[in-house]
Amino acid sequence: MLKTICYISDSCQDESLTALKALYAQAKKNNSKYNITGVLIYSNENFLQVLEGDSDSVDATFKRISLDRRHKNIFKVINIDIQQRIFEDYNFGFTIVNDSKELDKLYEYLEWLRKAENTLANKVVNMVENFIAQKLPKG
Fold first, then answer.
1. Residue 4 to residues 12, 48, 54, 86, 133: CA-CA distances in angstroms?
2. Model confidence, pTM
3. What Pfam family is a match, any one (predicted)?
4. How many domains does the chain have?
């Protein structure tokens, strides 16, 4: 069974570019290892992440993330079973959005999703777009 979890959290510190690159590399490696797709956005000391994949893998991944001391105030926004992945076709699976080029690609993908008229996809799209609008300048 497939599952998606989307959460937001506060960083415990203003992450340096070096620290973020290390975090992104580790997240991408771990998520590939467990066949997790999704997106991770960091801005202004906040994270938004969507994880999707096998239910056990997503739950285990979220548990590891929730124990990570680099962030706090973790709030699960979505935690449901799904029929299909939303981000599977987005940039080969798991993507980190940390620059305007990736942000533009994400906007294009979100617009494509919106046209698919999938209720869950549209909820995720709206959530991601709201987070981006509040946290990141459009590129």
1. 25, 13, 9, 9, 22
2. 0.77
3. BLUF
4. 1
